[in-house]
Amino acid sequence: MMLNASFFFLLIVLGIVAYFEIYAFAVFTPRDYLVWEDPKTWDYDKSNLVFMQLNAGGEQKKVPLQSQVELTWTSFLVYNDEN
Hints:
The chain is mainly alpha-helical. 42% of the residues lie in helices and 0% in strands. The chain has helices spanning 2-19, 39-55.
């Protein structure tokens, strides 16, 4: 009886958490399993951002970047920070 009551209480708490979205479930991405401080992860993030920028050029397909997507090559970008 006590085990059933505890399980029922757990289901009630789970329902409250799901209803109020206290714990939101998210789809896992390959980024979730990487070490965030690793320079290889930073390079991975940069290349993904550049790929998204190149694909988001719109109808004109012009973006303010000096690179292009090559499936067989690694893209290298030169950042010029004049701040």
